[in-house]
Every structure is written in C-alpha cells, then in structure tokens.
Amino acid sequence: MDKSITLPPDEIFRNLENAKRFAIDIGGSLTKLAYYSTVQHKVAKVRSFDHSAKVSLQETDGDPLYEISVQEEITARLHFIKFENAYIETCLDFIKDHLVNTETKVIKATGGGAHKFKDLIEKKLKLKVDKEDEMTCLIKGCNFVLKNIPHEAFVYAKHADSEFRFQHTHPDIFPYLLINIGSGVSIVKVEAEDKFERIGGSSIGGGTFWGLGALLTKTKRFDELLQLASKGQHTNVDMLVKDIYGGAYGSLGLTGDLIASSFGKSATTDKEFSKEDMAKSLLHMISNDIGQLACLYAKLHNLTRVYFGGFFIRGHPVTMHTITYSINFFTKGEVQALFLRHEGYLGAIGAFLKGAEEDNPNQYSWGENYAGSSGLMSVSPELNPIQRARSGTFDMLEMDRLERQLVNLPLLQDATSYIPDTVDLTEDALAREYWLYCFEEALDGNT
Amino acid sequence: MALCGVADTGSHSMDKSITLPPDEIFRNLENAKRFAIDIGGSLTKLAYYSTVQHKVAKVRSFDHSAKETDGDPLYEISVQEEITARLHFIKFENAYIETCLDFIKDHLVNTETKVIKATGGGAHKFKDLIEKKLKLKVDKEDEMTCLIKGCNFVLKNIPHEAFVYAKHADSEFRFQHTHPDIFPYLLINIGSGVSIVKVEAEDKFERIGGSSIGGGTFWGLGALLTKTKRFDELLQLASKGQHTNVDMLVKDIYGGAYGSLGLTGDLIASSFGKSATTDKEFSKEDMAKSLLHMISNDIGQLACLYAKLHNLTRVYFGGFFIRGHPVTMHTITYSINFFTKGEVQALFLRHEGYLGAIGAFLKGAEEDNPNQYSWGENYAGSSGLMSVSPELNPIQRARSGTFDMLEMDRLERQLVNLPLLQDATSYIPDTVDLTEDALAREYWLYCFEEALDGVVKRAIASQKDQPEAVERAEKFRQKYRHKLQTLRHQPFAYGSLTVRSLLDTREHCLNEFNFPDPYSKIKQKENDMALKYYLKVVKSVEELSWEQRQFNLVKGLLAGNVFDWGAKAVSDVLESDPEFGFEQAKQQLQERPWLVDAYNQWIERLKGPPHKCALFFVDNSGIDIILGVFPFIRELLIRGTEVVLASNSGPALNDVTNSELQILTERIAAMDPVIHAALKEDRLALVQNGSSSPCLDLRKLMLCEVPLRLDKVLATVVRERGTDLVIIEGMGRAIHTNYYAMLSCESLKLAVIKNSWLADRLGGKIFSVVFKYEVPSKAQGQH
User: Fold this and answer.
1) Which of A216, A244, A300 lies nearest to residue B305, judging by beta carbons?
2) Helix (H) or strand (E) holding B717
3) Which residues form the Damage-control phosphatase ARMT1-like metal-binding domain (chain B) (predicted)?
C-alpha cells in the first residue's frame, strides 16, 4: 500500500496525455476514475489505382488491383480505472505528471468519499472538484451500460453448467428496479432516462455484514468474511423449521429446512460457534432479507427486471448466489436476480456523462474495447489469489466511440429476439474447449 | 374450599418444590371441565373452563294480602347460590410446569375430563409428562389456527383489547374501542422468527409471509455480541444504549441529510456500519440497541409492505418479542410510523400472551358454541397488563411475573345495543378516560381508596349474621386496595381506566368474597320508609298549577337523586343525620339557573303533544325511585306517554335492581290507581338492562347491529313501543357515562353532582344540577 508504488503507466492510465474530461467516484474502499481521451490509431486503408488514365488496352499484368496504406486516425475512447482508495494519492500524482492537455479545468466527483478527498484532489490536480449527486450518477451509469454494452446483465446460477447466463440487450430497458447494496441498501425504481425514485431501502446491507461479521468473528476484512462464510454451515447457528416442529410445518407450507430464526440456536445454547458458521448465517440472513424486500417492492410496483449492485455484490459469487437464491424463493421464480458486469463503474460513468452531456454521448454508439478492459471477475477472491493481488488493485474498462450510429436491418423478422451468434461458448463447454484451443494454436501461424 | 395452601411463601426461586398459593392461582379447579395448554419456548399458558358458585342476593315479596302488619319489612332478602361459568387462563414459566401439573392432578375433582388440548412448540416436548401426570390424553392442535382463533376471540369479546403504544405521550397506552367488524386484519407474530398472517374471517387465514429475523435473532445475536444470555436483560441493555455509536447514519456518510432522496441525516444508513471499519470496542448497551433497531425496523418495513400489498390497515403485533415490553413496542411503533408515514398504526393486544391457549381451548369447546355467549373480563381475577413489565417494579415482578392470570365470566344474556344510539360505532360510554387525564385519575383513585373503609363496614353490616363476614370483608379490602395500587402505577392494566371500570372492579371484588349486595338491607329500609311518603308526595304535587307541578316534579326527581349511598358527601350526611329528609334535599339543590339548565326547553316541549314512549334508566333505591321517579312518570302516564323503566339486572351499590323494582311497583300500584291502571294496560313496563354496574354502557359488545349493553328484551321493547324519549338519571349513568352520548330521539340526562371535586371540575359547586335536554338535529352532525 506504499504510496511510492511504481505504477505501470502504459498499462493503466492509458492515453492520459490527451485526456480531456475527468470524473471520479470515491466509494468506501474503491476509487473509480473516468476520462475521455483520443487515441491515435494506425488504420489500414485501401485505395484503387487510377486505371482510367491510360486507356487500358493492355492490362498491366503485374500491377496489384489496389493500393494498401497505413494511416493515422484519431478516435475517441472512454477510460475507466478502478483502484483501492489507498492508492489515491499516488494515482493523483501520476495523473498530474502525465496530463499534457491543460484545457481541463474541472473534475466531476461523486460517491460518499467525494467530499472527504475533495481538498486532496483540488490540491494535486489543480482541477476544481464539481460534486454530482451520487444516485443520479449511479442511475445514469446504469442506463448507459444497459443500453451500450452487449451482455451487460447476467443471471448467476452457481450449480449450472455456466455460472453466468448473459442477457441479450433489449432496446427498451425501462422500467427496472435497481437494488444497490452498499453499506446500506437503496431500492430505486427507474422509469426513464431521467426519471427515477428511491422507493425504499434498508439499513441491513453490506455494512451490516461487514460490521456484525467483524464483531462476531474478529475478522476485519470484507473479503475474508465472505471467504469464511463460503466455508460455513448456517444450520449450526440458525434455528430451522424442523428444529421447532420436528419436520415441515405442512399446513403453512413451510419446509423443515427453512430458516425459522436466524441465529436462533445461539439464543439458548451455551456452546461456541465457529467463525465460518456465524459468517454464513449472517450472509444468509442479510441476503434473504434484501431478497425479500426487493421482491416485495418489485411486486408493489409491478416490476420484473431487478438489477443488483453495490460492493456487497460486486464480483462476489457467494453473495450473488445467496441473493439469487433468495429472489427465487420469494418470487417462486417469477423474478430473476440480474447482475451487471460493470456494476462497479456505474457511478463513475454517470458522473462522466453528466460532465459530457453537451457532447450528447448517447448519439454515438460505444463498443467495449476487449484489449483494454480487465473483464468480469478479475477481482474474484476465489479464482487466483496471486493474480488477484495484482489485478485486483487496478481494474479497467475502455470503450471506443463508433463514429456512426448503428441501426437494425429492417428486414429482421423480430429484432428484439434476434441473436447473432449461433453458439454460445459460455454455455457449450465442449465447443468452448475446442475453439479456445483452436485460437491458441493459430496464434503462431499466419493463416 | 378444600384448597388452602400457604398463601405467600415469599419463595421466588425456580425450585420445583415451590408451594403454590392455590386459592390465588388455579382457582375453581375442583369444577374444571375442559383443559387446554399452550407451551411456548419459555412460558406455559393453561386454560380451563369452570363453574363458580356465587352468592346472589334475592328479594321476595311477602304475602301482604293476608294482613298488613305495619312493622314488617316490605320484602324478604335472601342470599342464594347461583352457578356461573368462568374461563380461567394462567401463564407461568416452563420451569414450574411439573409442579403445576402435580398441583392440578391433586385438586382436580371432576373426572369426566379425558382430554387436554395442547398447542405451541413445546407441546410435543411435554406431551409425555402431561399424559403421565394428569392421566389425560394430549390432543395436539395446530399452533397457527389456535393463535388466530384466540386473536379473533379477544378482539371480539374484550373491550379495550387493542392499544396503540406512544412512549412519550401523556398516556403511553391508547386503547382502541371495540369495533364490531374485526376483519380483515394482519397479525405479525414475532416469536423466534416472524410470521405474517392475513386474517379475513373467523376461519379464513393465510400466512402470507415471514422472516427469519425475529425475536430469536435479537436473542441469539445479542447473546453472541454481549455475552448476556437472558432475553429480558438484553432488552434492558438495549434500553440504555446509543445506537448511533454503532450504526452508520446518513450524516456519517454525507455530512448531513441526503435531501434529494428525502433521507434525513439521522436515518440509519447501515446497521452496525461503524463496526465494520473502526477498531474500537463497542459497549454492550450500544450493540444491543443497534440490534434492536435493526430488527424492529426490518419487521416494521416488512409488515408495512405486506399490509400495502394486501390493502390492509389494521396490523396487530404479538409474540414474545413484543409481549409486555415497552422497548420493543416503541421501536416497532416507530418503524411502522416511519414506513407508512402514519397511515398504518401498530396495534398491540393486552392478552396477546394468551391467544394460543384461548384458541386451543375454543377448539375443544367448539361443540358448546362459546361465541354465542357474551364474555366479560373479570377484573378481580385477572392480573392486568404489564404485571410482568421488567421496568416498573423489579421486586413486584419477581412474584407476579411468575404467574399471570386472566379470568372471564360468561354472561348469561346476549347483549345488544340501544337501537336509539345515533352512531353506535362511534359511541364511547365513558365521559373521561382516566388513563389520559392524570389529575382526574389521581382524584378518583384517592376517592375510591377513601371510600373503601365505608364499603367494608357496609359489607360486614349486610351479613351481620355471619361471623366470618369480617374476615372476608378484610380480604376484599386487601384485594381491592391492591387493585387500586396497581392502577396507580399502571393505569392501563385493564384497558382504559374509567370511573366505570373502578366501580366495576369493586363490584367484581365484592362478589369474589361473597358480598353480592352489601346495600340490600339499607335499600330495604329506605324503600320501606319512602313508600310511606309516596301518597303524600303525589297529593302535594297534584294541588299545584301545571307549571308549578312540572317544576316540582323535576325538583323531586333531582332531590331524590341526592339520596345516594354511593356518593361520599351524601353518605356522610345520612350517617350523621338520618332525619335528612326529602324536603331538605330539595332545599339543598342548587337554585336555577342550574349548572346545565335546559329546563325551559323541556317545559316548552311538554306544552306540545305527549311523547309516545319514554325509556327511563333509573338509578337509586328508596327515595329516588319512589318519591322522585314515580311521581314524575305518573305525570307522563297521565299525559298519555307510555313508560318503560329500565333497572339493573344485578345489584350495584344502592341502585334499584329489577327484582326490587317489581316489588316496589306492585306496592305502589296497590296504593295508586294511576300506576295500577298503567300496569294493567301495559302502558308501564319494567325491563332489566343487563348490567350490574352503577354506570351504563350503551355500547355494542357482542351482537353486530348496535352497541347497547342491554337485554335483548329491552331492545325489542324499544322498537315495538316506538320510544321517542330516553331519560338517563344519576351521576353514574348520565355523568360518568353517556354525558356525550348522542341519541336519535329526544333525551333527558339529569343528575345532581354529589362530589365536590367533580362539581368543581364542571365549574360548579356540590349539589349542582345537570339538566340536559337534547333534541337530535334533523340534519345530523352539522354542529
């Protein structure tokens, strides 16, 4: 966490020299920086030779049909970088040193930490911090990713062949419910681009899991608490229906394994409970509660698309699983819990868009740049702890602006159900295996 | 009684060998007929049905036709045995279950009982023990069904059952008036977990939701966080804590309110949010408080969402998390207010702990159709709300918290309401709610305590021939004094405290110790004396001019009402000066204009056509009824108005009872041809009002049409005769109750204020006169 850490600048704050517009979203533990930059690309151009000059009685046999040249082209790109708050000063210094463009006078800021770090930012960057409403940015960002990034939303199914089932982008994203699980929970109904309402909330959120978890297990790190939870048995701590009635309570439709009382067993027994079991019970308690509230609000407002976000969810299979389970239980499968690939960036994207509104970014189409983006779950604590230590520190998303607006082929029979790809390799493991191998094999060659 | 265990051993231990004070707890066990038991996680609730032998005072006319012996009393008073039905409910800690079962076994005489209905989570755990000890077959009943059945029963049968809790208000408990239509409602039962049940009809309910975050979570997490293992202690900790030390508030994140989202700065953003990132130690109190808020708010929010989804506005909360705990009632109330913005009120129940036991009992008793009867809470035999409150009096609690009781008497008549009430659903009998008026409460409690010696004396005097009456009277004194003391500290113990409930409690306690009618002898003497003056009074009035006569009759009525052994000032005068006579009473009366004076309007009305029928709720025996009421109604009869005299079914103070009135009326008819003819032609009728109280409750209790606590017969009489005038007489009936009652016909409410404090409060002096004559406006509700 040393402030003197050497950043690998080319890899992280790319194209900083042309950066034009900054936005920053400072949460409880992570900072998300957004900027707009132009990229000089080499593009291959082909040009036909002028065959008309000489009357072509004789075709010059050896000449190529057209000419190939490489030219420079300038395109617009959005950069989003996510890093731990601990690095904020180092990052600000780095940005200051590499920022060439001096037209920029203002940085849009949002998130709970925005006012805490305001002075530091202004001092370091010599930019005026312009605070933007957190919820407005969040929703703006959410609308943007849902509209612009294919396969943004997904359903999580722990035991299915493919854990992630991506949703196809739907032209009409409204109305939807966004359940943002940060320290607490905000339940927001979004009806249009600029129309949203916080219809509910709860104080039982990520902060509760973290806070109560820390008190119960003496484990202070959120990730470690989740790790503990993933190994525990909640039935050792929770009182189940069968613990009271000896089995199911059939006439009320309650199965024996249903949790009757969270932590109910610790009320009357004197035995010690394991950290893992308590963490698991806590996780279930909180996830179920949020799931139930989400389902009730969805029903009350007649909404079926429910997205979950916030640090409690962010890239954690454990919480995505418990929330999904809870939603299935309470809606009897009628509502699906949806998660977002770029959920962590919503605030930063929104803040950036607020600043960029005069440019009408929605008029353009944006495409995710796979080369410059870290990809989902690069911060997963489960996948590869070593890899995590590095990539968990900096996570990136880059989006290229396409200069043309793209439209549907009007001849499609049903544009909304149209899926371009024939095989989904996330779902077809055999095909995936083959094609990944195939592309790797082909890497050396020049075919 | 065969039961005579040591009354109060002072033993507060959980020792199984505890000596139970049987007379006080498992009462009337020898006749117990039907048992039900509800065994919860920590408390057992036992219910049984029993019959009680009461002494009742009866009056019987002598055969006067033989020969008129001048010195003989007018009628004979005898005390007879009467058997009434009573429901007993006892609540005690599970630790006592074996002792209690042994006790029951030893004292259960009736052997017809073969089965005990059982419900609650503990029912299957204790099944074998119960069957072994009691030799009764345990018949398990569904817990939720029992709970709902019990809930429906108390909501329908017990006045002031439901209340709103307001911690900082003048009166913490605001009792709800019984509403005839209790459905639909939502019941949130907060036990270990939470069950949310929608109840749509007597037998139609559905568990529409629930939550695992309930009382067990508070207890379990609380125990882990604070190392405190007792639920009560956890609540105590919570009541002392500061949740803001542990919770992350909106202002902790945003430096203030988050205005655009409508979130105030003090709102909890994240429960336990502060313990996530700081390393400091948190106090047990603060953590317990934060936990309590977290759970209460969560339940409140769920309750509110389910209520909205199902369009319900009546939401009752119960379960051990709530039971008698002001701390949780407060946080739940707060939460409901917050989430519904005041649209839904959190309601609690006085007898919430008994619902399962009551329901199980009713399941067993269904063949008897107990709902056909009316049931009344017996104040003498019931512990009252919050007798287990941990906050009020820890020492008292150790004892009374162990055993809590509820007793209900079956009323043999079905009660209906007076069809002449303008709006039966909004009718409230009592004029002053003493739970809300601290000054008035203070005075009346003092007043009833002051009067206690006199009541005890009179009770003993009424049974001079029975030497043990002194001992019983002493027991009565102790019991009633204890009730008064309880009410001083917990005015909400039996619902809204009123002068009526204080009077009724005294009657219940007197009955309890077999003083069914302490005033019987005095009434007899006074009736006897007054009858001798009847003709004289009638004659003197007849000689007057019409205007003078009317005024004299009203004055007579009022003067008669001065004679009231129930009011302290008068009893002082009468005891010191027995010669205090009718004429002197008239002179005592306030000169016109009276405190409330509608006499002129009344006279104007009398100049018009006669009323068709007058219904007269009479008050006292003796001079009042004989020299005040009879001359007055005699004039009405002569005018061509039919008269129905409604008197108490059972004795209360010196009020004339229906059976006494029958004898008196016969005797007057024998002297007075006008009364004789009216009786014969059925222009004068006597009915009983179904009550044994000095006050009068015109409110609906059981039947759904109208709230008058009156005999069905009376209701019929009223309809058939086309009653167009109601006269209510006396402090109890016209001042303490019904002063504001709106009737759909003309009404006279008259009383002499025989209490200087009350007179003072109404802006007058003692012996001030209230003469209220009201005519319903054609367009009702315009004022």
Assistant:
1) A300
2) helix B712-721
3) 448-764
Q: What is the mean pLDDT of residues B559-567?
A: 70
- A16 domain residue, yes or no: yes
Share of chain B above pLDDT 70, in %: 85
CATH of the domain at A381: 3.30.420.510
Q: Is residue A317 scored above 80 in pLDDT?
A: yes
Q: Tell me which residue in B212, B220, B276 faces A267 most closely, judged by beta carbons.
A: B220
Q: Which residues of B450-484 are buried (b: 16+ CB within 10 A; e: fewer)?
A: eebeebbebbbebbeeeeebeebbeebbebbeebb
Mutate to test the interface with B, among A187, A224, A261, A331 (most CBs of B within 10 A): A261
Torsion angle, alpha carbons of B29, B35, B38, B43, to 10? 10
For the stretch A236-248, what's the b/e string if a residue is b when 16 or more beta carbons lie within 10 angstroms of its beta carbon? bbbbbbbbbbeee
pTM of the model: 0.81
Q: Which of B73-77, B574-578, B652-656 has the lowest mean pLDDT?
A: B574-578
Tell me, yes or no, whether A141 lies in a domain. Answer: yes
Contacts of B453 (CB under 8 A, 6+ apart): none
Would A53 be classed as within a structural domain? Answer: no
- Residue A195 in contact with partner chain B when CB distance is under 8 A: no
Stretch B512-521: mean pLDDT, rounded?
A: 87
Residue A55 is predicted with a pLDDT of 53
Question: What's the domain range around A119?
Answer: 1-45+71-149+343-407
Average pLDDT, chain B: 83
Please answer yes or no on whether B216 and A261 come within 8 Å at the CB atom.
yes
pLDDT the model gives residue A209: 96
The answer to whether residue A291 sits within a structural domain is no
A245 reaches B (C-beta below 8 A): yes
* Of A171, A68, A134, A176, the residue nearest A406 (C-alpha): A171
Which one of B224, B270, B306 has the shortest CB-CB distance to A203? B270
Q: Which DSSP letter does residue B629 get?
A: I
Tell me whether 0.90 is exceeded by the ipTM.
no
B305–A183: do the CB atoms touch at under 8 Å? Answer: no
Give the integer Cα–Cα distance in Å for B783 and B776. Answer: 11
Residue to substitute from B247, B253, B283, B291, interface A, most A β-carbons within 10 A: B253
CB of A327 closer than 8 Å to CB of A223: no
Tally of structural domains, chain A: 1
